[in-house]
Amino acid sequence: MLDTFFFYAFALMAVAGAILTITLRSAVHCAMALIASLAGVAGLYLLQNAEFLFAVQIVLYIGGIMVLFLFVIMLVNLDAAAKQRQFHRRFWGGIAAGAGTAALFAWFLVKGVGSVELAAPSPVTAETPGNVELLADTLFREYLVPFELASLLLLVAIVGSVIMAKKRTS
Q1: Does residue 106 lie in a domain region?
Q2: Cα(131)–Cα(137) distance, rounded to whole angstroms?
Q3: Rounded distance, CA 37 to CA 57, Å?
Q4: Do residues 147 and 140 make contact, with C-beta atoms less than 8 angstroms apart?
Q5: What's the domain count of the chain?
Q6: pLDDT of residue 169
């Protein structure tokens, strides 16, 4: 019963934050709404016993990337005209697309009730590795090259941003 309550609370937090992210006029308010949405997703990860994904969501996305977004938004001067144009002109098209997506989701939900059976969770023993250990094993055994390429790509992006920032100050 309590799990169901928390599921709906975190899901509402994620969906409401996402809706506010695309409808608010201020870029700072949009970023704050996105932080709320990401926190809701982190709560959903925690409910699914994916503690590692919960921690990554909080530390990496909310703690790192969103703080970086907020710094960039606050450092970039948006004039009044740009703030007025920031609200999307195709608002009603977005509302219609959202309503169509919601109707399609509701149709799939009604059509699919009872067609999916959830498996009972397996008991966790000391010999069974945790989800973090399985993730690390898979990541470093099967996907080592893509993992290293992603880290190199991030390094290039960081070096490029530092070079661009130094050119601006000079």
Answers
A1: no
A2: 10
A3: 11
A4: yes
A5: 1
A6: 61
Q: In this prediction, what percent of the chain has a pLDDT beyond 70?
A: 79
- Tell me, yes or no, whether 141 lies in a domain: yes
Contact between 54 and 39 (Cβ < 8 Å): no
pLDDT in tens, 59-113: 888 888 887 887 777 777 555 555 555 555 677 777 888 899 889 888 877 877 6
Confirm whether 142 is domain-assigned: yes
Region class of 109: left (phi > 0), else alpha (psi between -120 and 50), else beta? alpha
Whether residue 153 lies inside any domain: the answer is: yes
Q: Are 132 and 52 in contact (CB under 8 A)?
A: yes
148-159 b/e (C-beta count within 10 Å ≥ 16 → b): eeeeeeeeeeee
Query: 152 lies in which domain range?
Result: 130-170
In whole angstroms, give the CA distance from residue 46 to residue 66. Answer: 20
User: What is the model's pTM?
Assistant: 0.56
The two three-digit tokens of residue 109, written as one number:
């939900």
